[in-house]
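Why do we bother with holo predictions? Because pocket geometry can differ from the apo form. Keep that in mind while you read this record for oxidized coenzyme A.
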Amino acid sequence: MAIETIKVPDIGGSEGVEVIEITVAVGDTIALEDAIVTLETDKASMEIPASAAGKVTAIKVKEGDKVSEGDVLIEVEAEGDSAGDDKSEAKAEDTAEEKPEAEDKPKAEDKPKSSSGGSEREVPVPDIGGSEGVEVIEVCVSEGDEVAEGDSLIVLETDKASMEIPAPAAGKITALKVKEGDKVSEGDLIAMMQSAAGGDAEEAEPAPSKSESAPAKPEAPKAADSGKAKSAEATSSPVTAAAVADEVTGGSKVYAGPAVRRLGRQLGVDLARVKPSGPRQRMTKDDVRDYVKNIVTAQQSGQATGSGIPQVPAVDFAKFGEIEMVKMSKVKKITRDNMSRSWLNVPHVTQFDDADITDMEAFRKGLKADAEKRGSKLTPLPFLLKACAAALVAEPSFNVSLHHDGEHIVQKHYVHIGIAVDTPNGLMVPVIRDVDKKGLWELTDEINEMAKKAREGKLMPSDMQGGCFTISSLGAMGGNGFTPIVNTPEVAILGVSRAQMKPVWNGSEFVPRNMLPLSLSYDHRAINGADAGRFFTYLNAVISDVRRLLL
Ligand code: CAO
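The structure, written out:
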């Protein structure tokens, strides 16, 4: 295996051009014409394609280096036979022989058609290294657009490289002669443009006939505009990219070279959404990859905003006043992800009702002394747990989950109910098992034990699994009602707000009753409104008269 050096080819005489991106790493196997580095002058970025295929053994430059023609960029252990270093040089010489210098080439008819103010000129496809029938993959301008010299007009793409063709001068596009999908070759007309008034004298010179003219003085892909030997093959340009596009998409400028744009197209990324990290706001391939990676990671972790759902833009809050960045606890992150997942996946319906707990409260207060004797506190929550368990048994359509196969509903024959517990670390939902089989005291003890464990951060994952339904009680805090979010894969959740004495019409008079506001949210994919109506009516009846729990 011979080691070949790949050097900076003819870059149009530019000296000390900055290396802004190295697109290969030691150990990479590269194909002929793969981009290896990107150079950037004031006006243009150029990808230097590999003049040899094989394994990269050394990289001789780093980002920020300044290079000129002939400087060594990388070393490659060449594939196949080892024609060795001579190969590229031989090719270069061949190329020089095969390709006459630009000055000798036929020139396009790029000269004035009229000279009032500016002059109309043809803009042909410049020398694109001999490639024929190259596809136009992007038309970056429209008729009537004002362009600056070097602005991208079109992007061409061969199997191996994409090339942006820049405007040869500042002016107005008066006619576009190509569209996306067209196949073009050197000399084909891209557009007509009215040069800006006072265009340079060179442009105003009379031109030879089309068959004898050169491409419109491009900073564009060029392979043979000087007499120097070429390091690439005759079939491809040593510089496969042209001016960096300075495109405005959706209000934000995209400053990216052809390889980055190609990667963007391959991955279906709208580059206007990608944050550039390169020098002078230039976008790198890593920026595009990071953008895709972040989206995939967010989707896999459940933070996904859903396909097509635009992300909330980042805001620099410090602009508006003093701020502090507080790290989210693990519990808060889990809650964030679970809530987003449920909110995005579950078509929620929330029904509201007030349950009359006057009698239940009288009963509970009658048990206060017993509770104290037991060393516990009896709140409305164990009653609500029992009532919900009874309703889940009476209306089994609520005791289900949607199976992930999309074909089945999982009907549960156990009744485990989660209770939302507010902890310093965030919201946790321990699950009380077999609520239907347990008495009030047992449930009271379990609620207290679970709430204590939650607040002390001692809940085990198994303590929070297997729920069929959840109760979220904000009764101690207040409020008239809220819309709880279903705790998937469960299909329903009961929100409990603060009980209040209210005047209730009993048919002949208003009587003061202790009314408990309830909000029942459910997954409308699994539960119909009629099921929910029956469940809620049953639940309400049980809460209003807890003797029904005995039936
Ligand atoms: N209306 C009026 N008063 C109520 C009530 C209601 N709906 N629910 C409870 N109360 C009273 C209790 O009776 C108790 O009063 P006393 O001290 O006079 O007996 C007081 O409010 C405090 O109750 P508690 O909060 O200690 O106990 P609980 O059984 O009601 O709740 C628990 C336990 C763990 C659920 C609760 O402490 C908690 O963490 N709640 C927050 C849940 C939450 O954050 N939900 C939101 C999830 S979605 O973001």
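The two ends are 88 Å apart (CA to CA).
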